Amino acid sequence: KNRSADDLRSPICCILGHVDTGKTKLLDCIRRTNVQEGEAGGITQQIGATYFPMDNIRERTKELKADAKLRVPGLLVIDTPGHESFTNLRARGSSLCDIAILVIDIMHGLEPQTIESLNLLKSRQTPFVVALNKVDRLYGWKPSPGAPIRAALKQQSKDVVSEFDMRLSQIMTELKEQGMNSELYYRNKELRKYISIIPTSAISGEGIPDLLMLLVQLTQKLMEDKLMYMSEVQCTVLEVKVVEGLGTTIDVVLVNGVLHEGDQIVVCGMQGPIVTTVRALLTPHPMKELRVKGTYLHHKELKAAQGIKITAQGLEHAIAGTQLYVVGPDDELEDIKEEAMQDMKSVMSRVDKSGEGVCVQASTLGSLEALLEFLKSPAVKIPVSGISIGPVHKKDVMRASVMLEKKKKEYATILAFDVKVTPEAKELAEELGVKIFMADIIYHLFDQFTAYMNNVKD
Ligand code: GTP
Ligand code: MG
Ligand code: NA
Question: What's this model's pTM, rounded to 2 decimal places?
Fold first, then answer.
């Protein structure tokens, strides 16, 4: 349907890598924002999305005198967490993308989540480049802010260059051990066979122009066909958020197709499918992160790829990490409702059928899955009797208190990740003797709970 090379959608680029390699900081450097410093514990715990219009990319790459044939309208970049708990979010991010940036810390080389990310990319055959980040940490590095990497390397002393070469070749060997041939991007003559490496600094900006240019060139060279615009809507819910003045909203990534104000949509909900109508389609300003509060632009319609905030009635119980469906004129609403609930079924299947276990509550389906994954792991093995997404209310405390009447009283516990506990719920928990563990860093929650269980055992 109406596919043509003159009508390419924006590619989606996912940024992946081990924790603290500088994924968010690289995006901050490109956006000229400061998202990373606002994160709890300096770690990313949600998927983010930022739209880079082609004009900005052209501006940032002009020193490289790249050809002007940048035919995609822009680039949608998806930020993902590197912490080991968020395997599911990395999988989700990488499943949305056309191309990826794998970030490796030049001082650390390949780390566990680098390898996990590599395997995700391999299994989906997603083309990617490596950003070899933190080159400014090489001892004696002379910054040349925002410069293309070859110009920056020319400024360095012999010692810096030889340390750079030594670390680069070490990392190329490590990549080879993972079955990947790689080469510095400007020496790479075989884009399809060798992974391009772009040395970068997210702090002083060296290599950023190269990274942007390569992403656009690669997408145009390798996947024109895939980027030809398609009318079928493909859309994933990233977050469910209450915004002052807007009520409950959902943040989505529109991968394909067009969304309109007034579209009838179906999303997966805690209490069944939610059928509603798009009231407003909002985006952050270009070059701003969707997951950070800000001012929004209104749109009558939006074409893929975009990160979008949707306002509509009845989204309170929508579940992040699920698909959004648009009801077309020829669609059977009942079929779509059933399809929309598929994602929830897999999580529900994790709940212990014996009815004995702790209650787990989180802000998104993604973090809920991460918690469930942890509790299931051989070292932990804690059964779960109830799950919920969103704030802890009195009814959740009531549900957890049922465990007080069973053999394992220590299961009268709620693990609450990145959600509020209402004052009434807190009061009731104290009264009944239900323990609530709260944290906004997922592994702090694990630590608290592990300490508690060890105490109970002794
Ligand atoms: P997660 O999302 O939590 O996995 O981390 P991340 O990969 O997004 O890394 P982040 O952007 O949070 O950066 C981690 C730390 O490394 C921060 O303290 C950054 O300031 C620092 N950092 C990131 N990039 C660079 C760089 O190029 N040079 C130097 N010197 N520090 C950097
Ligand atoms: Mg990050
Ligand atoms: Na971090």
Answer: 0.84
